[in-house]
Amino acid sequence: MKIFLASILTLISINAFAFTVKSISYVGMVHISEPVALRMLDFEVGNDVNENIIDEAVKKYFKQDYFSDAWVEVENGNVTFYFKEKAVISQVELKGWKESDEEVKKNIIQIKKGSLYNEQKLEAAKKRIVDAINKDGKIDSVVEIEKEYLDNGSVKVTFIVNEGEKIVIEKLNYSGVAGLNSDDFNSVISNKQNEFMGWLWGRNDGKMSLADLEYDPLRIRDYYMQYGYLDSKVSNPFVRANFDHYKADMSYQVEEGTVYTISSISISQAKNVADEQKIRDIITLKNGEVFNIKKFREDAEKIKTLIADLSYAYVQVMPDLKKNKENSTAEVVFKIVPGDKVKIRDVIISGNTRTLDRIVRRELYLGPGDMYSLTDLKDSRNSLGRLGYFESNTIEEKRVDNQTMDLVVKVKEAPTGNIQVGGGYGSYGGLLVSVGVNDFNVWGSGINVGVRAEKSQKTSNASFNISNPRLNDSDFSGNFAVTKSMYEYLNYSVNTDGLSGGIGHKFTRHISGFVGYGYSRNTYYNIDIANINFDPRYYESYSKSSTTVSLSFDNTDDYYLPREGLTLSQSFEKAGIGGDADFLKSKTTFGKYNGLEKYIGFDAIFRYKARYLNVLDTGFLPTNEKIYLGGIGSVRGYQSYSISPTKLNSLGAAIRTGGTQTFSNNIELSLPLVPKAKMRLVTFADWGFIGQDSISEFSRGSFGLGLEWFSPVGPIQLMFANPLNEQLGDRTSSFEFTMGQRF
User: N or C: which end of the chain has fewer CB within 10 A?
Assistant: First the structure.
């Protein structure tokens, strides 16, 4: 900072360093307006000032952090402040580490385009980058800052990162472990010993996570407390690192103590709001059992939910332990402070730029004037998630006073409609060209309308459908569809023209029923002549008039990507009223979804799906209505509809005839791959059974990997499968894809 007092000698001789201000002006100041700058001064025109007052004024301006230099000139009472503004940062780049990660630039670098150049802020950003890399377990990282002044006077800042190396834990030792198996600690700790072929998925690579070092001892102690070791002590890890080779040995000192059993369970309510026996009925801890800290916490949460469902929204459940070290027992105490009952004052909807407010409100189980319920709140979140209209949703509890709260529902719209002109490739149907317009939330009304036409090498279909899941915002639903399709099966082709409609009703939050009717005309052609040897009647054109009745249960938390809950459905289709086909078909489906993030620390999802189908010939069962396995939805790794009971024709060849009963199940583990792109990796194992007289006549399985992508045009699945139990004559498929289906 430079301060020039041009007429200082004159001032000294005239009036002992003092003068009267005649004018005040500014040169080079941009970020502060002149009126604001004048208000910042402790003097104005006409005041007498000295060099100290002028000096303080310059310092005050400089502290605003807009200038790289500031000085003042005084001549004949005219005061002029000069400023050199800091350069503006026009570009921020990152090289050598997460170069395209905008979240890193936003949350770690924290320097925006258009901000003023500041050395201190750049150094702080540099430190944050090093700290972030250290959290990944890499040490000796170096970050350099490169500055380039551009022609327009702005600055381009580039952070050049040279990542360090990760330390690999070669040996991990525990001293003092006797009552438990130290190998089991791997299920809870982050820093584990390197295993042979640790680079394989599911194996430990031994790479150290510095951010978790301080938490691993707590995790081990918590694990001990799940087995009653309430006095256990686990030291901080002692690490001996070789920085030349980036390897380390690590050890813990453990004092286990004794195992505590539960002597009694006490419940203390600040005021009696719930029947004590009801509280005890939900507690899983029992007298005489070994204490388990995990059950202890879960029981506290169950009690909190029970009391909160009675409208005590601000209830506090304070679990406590009273240890008796002499006999190694512990009294479990649940102290309940319920507070006041809480009423909902208002429900505020936000974020629904497209979906109408009433569509959101009709899924909520709490409204203005209702008494609070924690279960109702959770069910409301899940109900919004099952719609499929929103990418995410939250319901915030905004406290008004001790007896009143507002609920703020925040949703983020998801793409629900698209105009699609494109194509793809399927392992069975070959090249696919499709044109379609579909929106299952048209104009934000909750109504689903779709028109679609597609053609592949073996299929073609056109369809129109319209459905409303909540007719007039009631618990009734309705749908209507018209279809025209052609499908080329392995031994014949079928043309189908049909229409269908139905009415559904939501009986409870999770249970709904449906009654529908459908009519279709089905025409066979391109029949493998050898099949006629069985019964020509089965390959004659026929009509189908059928009624379907179904009942379903669904308490999952999301439509496309559920992380909790289960689905269960049972349907019966009876054909034979006014049509040629006469049969009874039963279909049972089951799905279980579990998010594993709270157990393993990242967003993995376990899924199990099962299907059982059975069809009974009550007069005439066309071949087209029989059951086949293969493809996505049953057993991947085999062509669609290719797994079937067979019969030998007159030439001795095996002909697929379709089954009357089948069971298939799938186990899947979905893992985050590119979270920002909503892309996930899935591993799976499928197995199915099918038969004519017995369900176990044919059995096939598969395993493989897949890609799940919630793309801008809808959910897409790409599956790569390897068949199991493959037999001569099987039609296998290593790749399949679908679009629009629930994961």
Answer: N
Structural domains for the chain: 8-85 (3.10.20.310), 89-162 (3.10.20.310), 167-255 (3.10.20.310), 261-337 (3.10.20.310), 343-413 (3.10.20.310), 417-739 (2.40.160.50)
Query: CA–CA distance from 626 to each of 182, 623, 670 (Å)?
Result: 55, 5, 32
Give 366's DSSP letter: -
Helix (H) or strand (E) run with residue 711 in it? strand 698-711
Query: Among the listed ranges 116-125, 180-189, 553-562, 649-658, which one has the minimum average pLDDT value?
Result: 649-658
DSSP one-letter code for 2: -
3-state SS, 13-37, equals HHHCCEEECCEEEEECCCCCCHHHH
HSE toward the beta carbon, residue 192, CA cutoff 13 A: 18
CA dist list (Å): 343 to 340, 408, 632: 10, 14, 48
Length of the chain: 743
**What are the angstrom distances between the C-alpha of 307 and each of 55, 135, 332, 336, 395?**
66, 40, 19, 9, 20
**pLDDT for residue 98:** 83
Residue 48 token pair? 């007498």
CA gap 313, 405 in Å, rounded: 9
DSSP E strands, 457-541? 459-468, 476-488, 493-506, 511-525
pLDDT tens, position by position, 591-623: 999 999 887 778 999 999 999 999 999 999 988
What single-letter DSSP state applies at residue 187?
G
CA distance 125 to 57: 31
Output the CA–CA distances (angstroms, integers) from residue 700 to 5, 112, 491, 637, 653, in the order listed: 94, 57, 20, 9, 20
Report the C-alpha gap between 177 and 194 in whole angstroms: 20
Is a pLDDT exceeding 70 seen at residue 529? no
Greater confidence (670 vs 155) lies with 670
Phi/psi of residue 130, each to 5°?
-60, -45
Q: DSSP E strands: which ranges in 351-492? A: 390-401, 404-413, 417-426, 430-439, 448-456, 459-468, 476-488
For residue range 462-512, what is the model confidence (pLDDT) as tens digits? 899 999 999 999 999 999 999 998 877 667 788 899 999 999 999 999 999
What are 223's two structure tokens? Answer: 């694990």
> Inter-axis angle of helices 293-308 and 374-387, to 10 degrees?
90
pLDDT for the residue numbered 536? 61
Paired sense of beta strands 564-575 and 542-554, if any: antiparallel
Instruction: Round to whole Å and give the CA distance between 451 and 32.
Output: 59
- Alpha-carbon distances, residue 620 vs 46, 125, 396, 496, 625 (angstroms): 110, 76, 57, 18, 10
Burial class (CB in 10 A: 0-12, 13-18, 19+), 743: buried
User: Which residue pairs, CB below 8 angstroms and at least 24 apart, start in 275-281?
Assistant: 278/306, 279/303, 279/306, 279/334
Alpha-carbon 428 to chain mean position: 32
Give dist(CA 195, CA 743) in Å, integer: 33
CA 433 to each of CA 385, 459, 485, 663, 742: distance values in angstroms, whole numbers, following the listed order? 32, 10, 14, 32, 22
Residue 698 burial class via C-beta count within 10 angstroms: exposed 0-12, middle 13-18, buried 19 and up: buried
0.85 exceeded by pTM: no
SS3 for 675? helix
Under 8 Å between Cβ of 92 and 80: no
Distance in angstroms (rounded) separating the CA atoms of residues 202 and 503:
48
Ordered DSSP codes for 633-671: TS-TTB-TT-B--EEE-TTS-EEE--BSEEEEEEEEEEE
What SS3 class is residue 173?
Answer: strand
